[in-house]
Each structure stands twice: as structure tokens, then as C-alpha cells.
Amino acid sequence: MKSLVLAEKPSVARDIARVLGCSQKGNGYLEGKQYIVTWALGHLVTQAQPEQYDAEYKEWKMENLPIIPDPFKLVPIKQSMKQYNAVKFQLSRGDVNEVIIATDAGREGELVARWILEKTKTRKPIKRLWISSVTDKAIKDGFNNLKDGKAYDNLYAAAVARSEADWVVGINATRALTVKHNAQLSTGRVQTPTLAMIAEREKQIRNFQPKPYYGLQAVTEKAAFTWTDGNSAQSFDKEKVDKLFKQLDSAHEGTVTDIKITPKRQPAPPLFDLTELQKEAYKRYGWSAKETLNTLQGLYERYKIVTYPRTDSKHLTSDMKDTLKDRIKAVEMGPYRALANTILKGTVAAQKGVIDDAKVSDHHAIIPTEETPPLHDLGDKERKLYDMIVKRFLAVFYPVHEYDQTTVKLTVGGETFQTKGNTIRNEGWKRIYNDEDDDNETLLPAFEKGQKLNIKAVVLTDGKTKPPAFFNEGTLLGAMENPAQFMAGESKELIQTLGETGGLGTVATRADIIDKLFNTFLIEKKGNDVMTTSKGRQLLDLVPEDLKSPKLTANWEQQLTKIAKGQLKKEQFMKEMILFAQKSVSDIKKSDQKFKHDNVTGKMCPDCGKPLLEVNGKRGKMNVCQDRECGYKKQVAMQTNARCPNCHKKLEMQGEGEGKIFVCKCGYREKLSAFEKRKKSSQSKATKKDVNKFLKQQDEPPVNTAMADALKKLLGQND
């Protein structure tokens, strides 16, 4: 008899098969003497759509809402039907006596496997492989410590509850809004509160009233000293500051009245979880959350040099202590050789708080594996991301950064001025970043208490308070992770729950949520700023109030956590969700709010004859049909990375055929033919690097590939 191992992806399946000695290739599986390894392609099975329950639901009608499946149906995903059938056949084999689930160790990974088992009506005993990296050692250790599948029944129940609740709320509210307002309007328990946060930030900026403030500086030969009003270096009282300025204008001398040296200790930054890594990658390189996740997935699956990506923990577990030295040895090469060698010469011990079992749920922080990295094989993004992970990992094994903060107070005409400086005592972990980070050492000249200083000038300073910044993709991820400031009036318990459960969405889904908001034209980018569109703002006026608040997610996550712990029945939770869906549909039906298309182009859809709308997609402008069932889309302008020779902003490509031109907001225009001629005069053929430079590389194919193909051809890229 044999054990059937079900992995989540082919790449992981191949690694497991190699370790288990399964070398015989078959249709969608690899087989050995003891094991058969097969794989999903992410989800092979999904929730049925409404029309798969009843053909009547194919046409969206308000009288059919809400749609409440009982029971819910699962269907194989059409695009991956071949692999589904291959897995189904292996599960049905008479010589298979047990199934080992080897999908990602988490709620969604459990769902991937269990849905396949449920749809294929597999009733064989289940064991669970639960690992955080796919190195040979981790796989071997995992198979030596397989868990009983029943131990994860509650986790599966929580995953199903989340999926069914999202279906009931999302599909019914989306259909109700779309039918009511004859517009493509989509809503959901995570995307709508996220949209509401972006709108709330815009409101804060719009309503912000800048307030002028004032200050003084005393300039001496040794340093500039800043006036302090109590504990503040500025005052909103202009009259007071003007009066002081006049009084001190004639001051020629100040006395050093106090010198305070305060020892400071700064521990290394915490290890990365996925959200923190995505935020940092955006801050450094401007990468989207999806770009970072896709790059990280490659480092994990293809190269096996980092641990599991979709983690929400910044800590390690105590049982990993014995592996840390091997991980440091693995990166003792290239640019990390000297840094790693310094750690290995002494006792390998992480800084306080890094190892904490209580703060690790499914997976520990993202760190290097024991595999030696093939640095020369890594692409530019892979290299940069791996560098961030390695340095953050090595930093926690260095001493804390220690410095002395010196505060010198100067009295001028009875008023107190001060200046500060830092002197490093022990560089500690900052040695790792000495080429990147600003040195926080600000040396001050020597001062003595009672010393008299000549005042060269007293200068009046002023400024205005600034509004909060618009969200960018990095700060939006942070707000999704911790949306407490957008939950005014909610109980502390709810706010705490949302913090404990990871905020809006999960580390694995936030990138997709942001992408969905872009792709449904509810948000757009202006420069690096993420802003709501007219459609997005109108949608927030149309959806039921509860769907806009993170409170709903907090309540749900609280209950899903209880289901996963066996403290709440899934059926009880779903009763509440069905009631919520019924109320949402009822509220939408009764609403007297109106939706107005304010982006009608005047052009008609070539497929159905209805007016086309102009929208800003993530890649540039598009014309889309306002009829949901038609679905016509066409790219009319594509954002490129080519720079305007006048203002150096990014150029947009517009037009079709021979009429294609590059256009800039400053008014600069250049025909494609002229651009092509200029490119040819500088070089005979652009390299792939040039293509990457001029085109925004996307994870998915463009909606209108003709324009993308033209650009590729222009820049000399071959498929």
C-alpha cells in the first residue's frame, strides 16, 4: 500500500518527490515505492457561482436576491480540470491507503486540499505535513513528524466559514448594487473597508486647516541652538514669538546652563513578516505588494533560500535555535562573508525578544534557509529582496546599537535654547547597514557648563502644520494591517481583536485586495499616491454602513478564530452571516441614493452599442463598456517608464497604428516613428534591460496586448 502526498504546487511537489525517492513520472504525479506525489495548482476546486445552482440566476435580478445556497456546492475550476482529474484518479487508486496533505501550512492551504478531498468524496485517513520551508532537511523532518489530519478539522471549518461568508455577503451585495444602479459595482468585507479608509484619509486632507507656527534660533560660532517653549520647539502664538524676537535681537551673549548626556540603546529592527517586507520593498524600490510577493515566492519555491512567505509573525520559535548557526553559515559568502563571520566567531545568540513561541502562529518570520544562495543566478529583484531578508536576519545576532545623546542648553536673555547631538559608543547591528542608512552620529563641539558663547544672530523661523499624507501602496498595507485609527467609537476589545487577527485581510490576500480595487476602477494612482475614483466615492455612498467599517472584519475574524480553536460552530456563525446578507440586500433595495457615470466618453461600444466609460487602470487609461454583461475593454493609453526630455516625468503612449504617440502632462508630444528613429540612432537594438526600463512590467498580461506588443517591437524585445 502507498501514501498519496498532495502538494499545493508542482514545484513543491517535485521537491517532496525528490526527497521521498519518487522518480517515476506519470500524468500529473510522481511515484516511488512508498509514496505517490501529486499536486494542485493553487485551488483546483472553488465555490459554485449562482447560475450553477439555478440557470435562472444567470440573469441578475433584484427579485432573486438574496441567494442563499443550502448546501453550498463545490465545482472544479475549468482551467485546471485536467490536473483535477489527475488528482482524482490517484485518490481513487486501490493501493492508496492514506492521504498526506502537503499544501501550505495555514488556513487557505488547508482549504485547497480539503476541498479537493470533499469534491472527490475521498474518505481515506488523512495525515498533515506542516513545514515552514521546502529544503530537503525541512521536508525530511516534516515527514518524520506527520500530524493527524483530524487535528486540523477546526482550521478547515474556519476556512470554509470564511469562504461561504464572503460568498453570501459579497455576491448578494454586489448583485444588488449592480442591478439597482445599472453599473458594475463590487463590494466585499475587506475591499470595501479598505476603500473607505482611503476615502477617509482624503477627507482628512481635504478638511485639514494648516496652522502657522513660529520659533527662534540662536546662531553661535559652535552650533545653532533652537528656542524651546516648554517641551516644544515651536509656538502657535505669533505675538509672543515676535515679542521675544525683538527682545533678543540685541543679545550678544549666551550662557551654557546645562549639559546632559543620556545613554541610548537601539535594538535591531524585528525580522520580516510578509506585510513588513512588502512595506519596506515599496519604501526602497517602489514595488507593489504583488510584485514583492511574487518575487518572494520565487526565492522560496525555486531557489529554496528563504522560508515560507505568507507569514504574519516577526518572531522565531525556540525549537529553531539549533538551526540558526547553519543558516548563518549558508550566507557566509559574497557581501555577507565578513558580517556572518563576525557572528560565528562568538556565541550565536539572537537579541532579546526575537525567539518567542507565543508570538508565532502558523509560521515564523521570513528568514534565510540553510541552503547556500546562488547569488549569481538571481535576478535584480530577487537579489535585492534576498539582500533585505539576509541583512534583517543577521542584524538580530549583532549587539544593540549604543550611543550617547548629548543635550546642551543655552540661556539667552532669560530664554532657553538647546541643541542635540549623538555620539556612537557601539555601532552594533548598524554595521550591517553602514552603506545604506544615514549615520545618526551628529557630533557636537566640546561645551562646558557656565561657558559664554557669542551670539552671531537670533533668527525667526516659521512654518505650517501639514495634513496627513495620501496613502501609497506601502502605507496602505500598514493601514490594512492596523486600521485602529479608522475605528473611532468602537470598543477597545474589537480594536484589539483586529490587531491580533492581523487587521483587514490576511498577509496572503492584501496584495490581491489592493489589485482588485485598482482593477475594478475604485482607486487609481496619481504619481505614487493612491486615491479613490469618482466610482469609488459613489460606491461608499451606496453600500450599507456596516460594510464600510473594519468592525465587520473584526467581528468575523474574532468568530473565525473561535471556530479554528473549536470554541464556536461554523453553522452558528453562518446564521449570522446570512442575516447580515439579507439585511444588506434589503438596505440597498430601499436606498434612494443614485449612481452617476461622470466618465462617459461619447464613444459607443463596438460590441453592444452602449456608451463607453474612460477609466484609469493601473497601466494607464482604458475604455470599458458600462454594461457588465458585455465586458468590452480596450487600452487607449499606456503608462511607460520613458521620461519626458523637458520635465523628466513618465510619458504615456496614446493612439493606434501609425498614430501612436508619446504624450506628457507638460505638453510634450513625440510621434512613435520619431521615438523609434531616435532609439535606432542611439543603438541598433534595445536589450531586454531597455525594455524593462521603458515599460512597466506587469504580473498579468495587458488587457489590450496590441499596444504592449507595439512597444515591445519598438524596443526590440523578442518573445
Going by CATH, the homologous superfamily of the largest domain would be Topoisomerase I, domain 2
Largest sheet: 7 strands, mixed
Q: List unreliable stretches of 5+ residues.
A: 684-719
* Strand tally: 25
Shape, principal axes of CA atoms: globular
CATH class of the largest domain: Mainly Alpha
* CATH fold topology of the largest domain: Topoisomerase I, domain 2
CATH hierarchy: architecture of the largest domain:
Orthogonal Bundle
Physical arrangement of strands within the biggest beta sheet: 2-3-4-1-7-8-9
Instruction: Give average pLDDT, whole number.
Output: 89
The value of Rg in angstroms is 30 Å
Q: Total number of helical segments?
A: 21
Structural class: alpha+beta
Report the β-strand fraction as a percent range.
15-25%
- Level of helix content? 25-40%
Overall domain count: 5
**N→C terminal distance:** 47 Å
Q: TL;DR?
A:
With 719 residues, the protein is α+β, with helices and mostly antiparallel strands. The chain is 36% helix and 20% strand.
Can you put this structure into words, describing what you see?
It is built from 21 helices and 25 strands. With 719 residues, the protein is an alpha+beta fold. A seven-stranded mixed sheet has the order 2-3-4-1-7-8-9, with helices on both faces. It has a six-stranded antiparallel β-barrel with strand order 10-11-14-13-12-15. Strands 18-19-20-21 form a four-stranded antiparallel sheet, with no helix packed on it. A hairpin with a 6-residue loop joins strand 18 (600-604) and strand 19. Helix 8 (274-285) crosses helix 9 (289-301). The longest helix has 29 residues, at 153-181. It starts with a strand and ends in a 5-residue tail after the last helix. The relative contact order is 0.10.
